[in-house]
Amino acid sequence: MKTPLQRLYLAQFLSAFVDNAIFFILLGLLKHHGVAAIDATSRMDLYQAMFLLSFILFAPVVGAFAERNPKSFVLLVGNAIKAVGVIMFAVGMPAGLCYFIVGFGAVVYSPAKYGILTELTRTPEQLLEANGRLEGYTIMAILFGSALGGQMAEALPDLVNLMICFGMYVFSMIWANSIPRVQGTSNQSYVSAITAFFSDIMIIWRNPKTRFSLIGTAGFWMISAVLRLSMLVWLVEHLQIESPAMQSAIVACTAVGIVIGALLAPKLISMEKFYRAASVGVVLSIVLVVLVFSPGLWMLIPMLLLVGAFGGLFVVPMNAVLQHEGKPLIGSGKVIAIQNFAENIFMIAGIGIFTVMKHSFPINTTIMLMAMILLGIVIYLISQIRTVSGGRGI
Q1: For position 168, what pLDDT does the model report?
Q2: Taking a C-beta distance cutoff of 8 angstroms, is the pair 287, 335 a contact?
Q3: Positive or negative CA dihedral for 108, 112, 113, 114?
Q4: Lowest CB count within 10 Å: 24, 140, 223, 341, which one?
Q5: Is pLDDT at 7 greater than 80 in this prediction?
Q6: Which residues are CB-contacts of 97 (< 8 A; sequence separation ≥ 6)?
Q7: Which tens digit of pLDDT belongs to each residue from 196-213?
Q8: 25-56, pLDDT tens digit by residue?
Q9: Rounded to whole angstroms, how far apart are CA atoms 144 and 140?
Q10: Rounded Cα–Cα distance for residues 306 and 314 (Å)
């Protein structure tokens, strides 16, 4: 951990690990309190929405916070807020409120997590590589957090699990604090930041490349949020798997695939031709449809790996371009805050659509309909390729 980038990767891994483990620890906590498996998964819809709501509510000011302060300090503050949320869990405060506070910490943390990359790299190629590595560490954290979160929920007492989460947030704070501090560049007040935030959205929206990337990343994370919740229901209904440990291990297969896709993305899709990622989105939609016909784990697991791999190839180039093109327009921290705002609106909308549809349609139909929504987004992106490529096409 000698270089600032390596310290960032470790800090991000620890923080993202807990962000994902706590989801399954909370699921296990509900079951320990006698909530039936299918009811617990329904309640998780609400808790996940509470987590995401914090991103929408606080997005207008966290970008300014990330621009005004050293980004390593912002990472520390975000993790400190998450740690407070864990303590609230431990003392028995309402789970929805606790998860909301953890989400608040995540929304503070996120602009600095990606924004700091532009300070620690010098060229677009280095930025793309660092973005892919950070995404790889993030997805590895999602993988291990998802897989071990369920195991922890079954093997350890709830209080022990929460103290482990608290400790990992603290260690992430320590590593973040060791990253050199680069002073912020903005003196903007937080009141004016709220007005400026919506003006910045229009700046990002009017730029064809940043608009393309923003829609692409938002669509991907919408499907990711829905897939995690829908898999909990699907596994109970189709394979009678109710164990949080088994559920988390299976869902983690998607993260394995995303790690592969994120690491391959810089090699397969260049920064200049980032728009080629849209064609990957078509394949991703098809794989999601095929997935629901899996007769058992022998087919489901390879399908989840493919979903993750194509997802990584789809989202990493768009992330890098959004940061590279957006920084000179409005600043890196503000770009990520807007990205969080858009992605979480899409995710809450996706969870809302999923929640309504799962009460009206079989879970297979619901997942396929969500895949069709993703396909519609991708088709729109494909229609914009000539605009963002300067008329060259794919």
Answers
A1: 95
A2: no
A3: positive
A4: 140
A5: yes
A6: 50, 88
A7: 888 989 999 999 999 999
A8: 888 888 777 666 556 666 777 888 888 888 88
A9: 6
A10: 12
Q: Which amino acid is at 83?
A: A
Query: pTM (2 decimals)?
Result: 0.79
Is residue 1's pLDDT more than 60? no
Tokens of residue 357, six digits: 């549809």
> Residue 38: its pLDDT value, please?
59
Rg (CA), the chain: 20
Tell me the fold of 4-176+197-388.
Growth Hormone; Chain: A; (1.20.1250)
**CA distance linking residue 335 with residue 326, whole number of Å:** 6
C-alpha dist (Å) from residue 76 to 71, 108, 196, 356? 9, 10, 25, 38
Length of the chain: 394
The Cα 363–Cα 354 span in angstroms is: 9
Handedness of CA 17, 22, 27, 31 (dihedral sign): positive
For 223, what's the count of Cα atoms within 13 Å in the CB-facing half-sphere?
33
Give the C-alpha separation, 374 to 377, whole Å: 5
183: left (phi over 0), alpha (psi -120 to 50) or beta: beta
Average pLDDT, the chain: 85
CA distance 85 to 18: 12
Rounded alpha-carbon distances, angstroms, from residue 336 to 135, 325, 333 = 14, 12, 5
**pLDDT at position 377, please?**
93
Residue 373's pLDDT is 92
